[in-house]
Amino acid sequence: MAAAERVRLAGAAELDEAGEVARAALTYEAGEGAELVRRLARPPRDRRWTALLADGGVAMASMSTADPAVGHLDLLAVHPDAQGRGLGLGLVRAAEDWLREQGALRARFAGNPPCYAWPGIDVRYTAAACLAEGLGYERYQVAWNMTADLDDADLSVAEGLERLAEAGVAVHAAGPPASEDRERVVAFVREHWNDSWAWEAATATGVHYAERDGAVLAFAAWGARPGWFGPTGTAPAARKLGLGRVLLRRCLADQRAAGQRTAQIGWVGPLRFYSRAVGARAERVFWLYGRELA
Questions:
Q1: pLDDT, tens digit, for every residue of 134-177?
Q2: 108 backbone φψ class: left, alpha, beta (φ>0; ψ -120 to 50)
Q3: Are strands 106-109 and 70-78 parallel, antiparallel or unpaired?
Q4: What sign results for the dihedral spanned by CA atoms 99, 19, 253, 143?
Q5: For 257, which DSSP code?
Q6: CB 3.0-4.6 Å disulfide test: which of 9, 90, 109, 136 passes with 3?
């Protein structure tokens, strides 16, 4: 039987099986493969998505809400014991067929914010990059993460908090999703950035924020993507106060307390800020691929 013929839609009861495949296959994810599958299976309500399963392989795909002509290959994993049998190819072909049925004209091996596994293909998963290129996908962008070593990083905030207090700024840990203060932060994020970041702030494991006179000035989140830090932002009028450093360190301290030895700072822009604030280093590189769907 051809690999494509063995691919089936995965029901809710089969997501645990898909998670075990991902856990075994995704060797650079610190054992988070199963959690990634669960996260991708809980996207924003308006997202169309699917999980495809073969014996020893899983693919997850979704449609962009920003561009109805674009579909995303969110996850591809083949168990080490099943590699070399064409399962990856069959899963990608099945995912592309599903995307076409949804109206996609283009497919991307790229993160579909706000609920994604990676910005693109981690270059260390070389077989996945070779598969994409062999299928005609073209590299159109590069993204990168930074890594913070939580065992060694200076995460102290006492001086920063004292300085902020003198400026009338208070820093808090937000409550759980749907709590009153979490919803205030989510509204702030939506006002100053976009719905994608607002969804991440709403669903993140932890959120810290700064306020003055009852107005939110800045926020930082962690665990919106399992194990990673971000997003974070400061309102333009509150910049230069040192809020970003304090909120970053408080989030990373939470991650360390949760048992993490390192934290990924995802889809990074300002390298200098994270390097100076917590000694983070640029490490993971992702290639973003796309192609037209005939």
A1: 999 999 999 999 999 999 999 999 999 999 999 999 999 999 99
A2: beta
A3: parallel
A4: negative
A5: H
A6: 90
